[in-house]
Amino acid sequence: MKTYAGIPEENASLENSKVVLVTVPYDGTSTWGKGADKGPELFLDASENMELYDIETGTEPYLEGVYMAGEVSENSSPEAMTEAVYQKTKELLATDKLFTLFGGEHSVSIGSIRAVGEKFENLTVLQLDAHTDLRPEFHGSTSNHACAVFEANQKHNLVQVGIRSMDVEETEYLPEGRVFFAHEIANNENWVNDVLEKVSGNVYITIDLDAFDPSIAPSTGTPEPGGLQWYPTLELLRKVFEKCNVVAFDIVELMDSAYSKPSAFLAAKLYYKMLAYYHINRD
Question: Model-level pTM?
Answer without folding.
Answer: 0.97
